[in-house]
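User: Show me a protein chain along with its predicted structure.
Assistant: Here is one chain, sequence first, then structure tokens.
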Amino acid sequence: MRQALKVFKEYNHQLYISMAYLQLGSNNISKMQLDSAKYFLDKAQAIKLKIDDQEGLGYVYNSLGIIEDYNGRYPEAAQYYLKS
């Protein structure tokens, strides 16, 4: 995925860059590397907001909710789930 991200950055394809960050975030969630996951998801969120990718934002918010769930912050998780 990191090599794909590099190519997407070379072509400045913002949608694909955001999708790569989302995938990296999801991969880190599955490895329970939650700080890294949040880092990539925050990058994905910033791009998706910039390009107005509402569907993609739903996936980002859902993933951020999962991180909050794992960290025991249930009210924050619920807010992300509602936004997704």
